[in-house]
Each structure stands twice: as structure tokens, then as C-alpha cells.
Design a protein that fits this description.
By secondary structure, this protein is mainly alpha-helical. It is 96% helix and 0% strand.
């Protein structure tokens, strides 16, 4: 009878180890999600900050640059 109890304990220990491993994997996945979310937020902040700086400089510069490029293309095409 003592051997049955020993086997039960071994089975319980094995089951507990599996549960512990599953919990660790879940925690790692949660941490990874948090890191990814944090990176996404940082990228968004940088993009928004860049957009604000661009707006402060003035959108006219960007548009005029685009016109210059199109004029260059047309002048090369005409030659």
C-alpha cells in the first residue's frame, strides 16, 4: 500500500510541474505582450511628435518640395 501512495505523490508532483510550466509560459506571454504594447506606444509617440514638429515647420515647405520635384521631372521630360 505504501507504494501506491508513493505513485500518487509522484503523479501529483508531475502534474504540479506541468502546471508550473504552463503558468510560467503564460507569464512569459503576458510579459511579451506588455513589451510589444510598450514598443507600439513609443513608436506612436515618436510618430505623433514628428508630425507635430512637421506641422510647426509648416506644411507649405513639404508641398513646395513636391512641386519642385514634379517641375524637374517635366523639364527633364521636355528635353
Amino acid at each position: 500500500m505504501g507504494s501506491k501512495k508513493g505513485l500518487l505523490w509522484k503523479a501529483r508532483d508531475g502534474q504540479e510541474e506541468e502546471e508550473d510550466e504552463e503558468e510560467e509560459e503564460e507569464e512569459e506571454e503576458k510579459e511579451e505582450k506588455k513589451r510589444k504594447e510598450k514598443k507600439r506606444k513609443e513608436k506612436r509617440k515618436k510618430r505623433e511628435k514628428g508630425e507635430r514638429k512637421e506641422a510647426e515647420r509648416g506644411c507649405g515647405q513639404v508641398e513646395s518640395k513636391g512641386r519642385d520635384e514634379s517641375e524637374r521631372f517635366e523639364s527633364k521630360r521636355g528635353r
